[in-house]
Amino acid sequence: MKTNRRYDIDALRVLAFGILILYHCGMLFVPGWGWHIKSSYQVEALPSIMQFFNAWRMPLLFLVSGAAIALANPQERLVDFVSSRTFRLLFPLLMAMIFTVPLQAYVQAVANGSIEAGLLRFVVNYFTFQPWPQGAFDGSDVGFTWNHLWYLPYLFVYTLLLVGLLKLKTMLRLTLNSLSVSTVSFISAIFLLYIVALKLWVKPHFPETHALYNDWYAHPYYFGFFIFGYLLGRPACNNVWHKLAGSRWALLAVALSSFAIWLWLKQCNGLQVNLWLFAPAAGELQLSGASYMLCATNIKMIVHAFYSLSMIAAILAFGFQYLNKPDSAIARYSQAIFPWYILHQTLIVLLAYWLVPLKLGVIAEAVLVISGTFIGCYLVCRYIIMPLPFLHNAFGIFAKR
Length: 401
Prior knowledge:
The protein is an all-alpha fold. It has one domain. The chain is built from 14 helices and two strands; from the N terminus they run H-H-H-H-H-H-H-H-H-H-H-E-E-H-H-H. A two-stranded antiparallel sheet has the order 1-2. The chain is globular and about 60 Å long. It starts with 6 loop residues before the first helix and ends in a 16-residue tail after the last helix.
């Protein structure tokens, strides 16, 4: 398959996974947010920092994944593409679910007192699908888990759906001609309304499960970013990227301003806004037709959606401007970052399990967890995975075509 190389897409993929690793390290210290294991030190200011990244970190990853697929020109050989993607996504997922993810489940169950320590006994029960105490670990009701690797099966399903759309496009003999900046801007506005609708009317009823099934908010949400990324990665949108890069500072200013507004609204608990259809020239305000009440929660969701898209647009713009170069140092790690993604959360959970009881203080604990995770990922990747070719595919390293 012919591939159009975009070094900024490679670099953004590395940065997105890097942010994901730091984000998971931070989950130890966020008060009120459940996670596999928690530190005894909870940092009150951390939720706002985490929410700054949480609004766009996974949407960006799915968008970049869609763009990368577009650059690979899958429509040229769909059967080969599906076969390749199936192996590249599901084989590392299966290997991780067998060899690395169970350690997270074991540590979580021991840490919360659901089971007694004993890794061998846990592994035997885990792979024979024995029942677990309620809440023993994330996924214990099913009996096994993929934890942070949920991105892989979701991406696999979205890829199959995309292939179906491409096949339908071929059957209908549809073509995607060059899109003007104004057309893409219009599509972006429609996409914003789509995201707002999901946040307002779907998310409250279907919280994310990451279990693949019954995830009725997450699927249309992430699949939307995936398809939008595919559209941006097509040659028809090549002219858009230069315009985007030229507006990078304005986009960043809009994104940061919208995040500041969202934080302000978050502090205005109970705020309500009355929208009157009209007010008569004299006398008290009266209604004609209906009165609309938008509570602060709904306003925050709208602003949050706008922040997500504007921040992603700014990131794409800066990436295209500064990272789309053959000598991009970040892009060189595009293959190595996948083993880091597979390994990092297991290392975080293990480090936290050993360090939390020592009561070293929040700074020392955070530094040790973060540095230990990054150093551990580097050492395992550099001195175990890379020198042993038979491990490459199991950790998502494949020869580039």
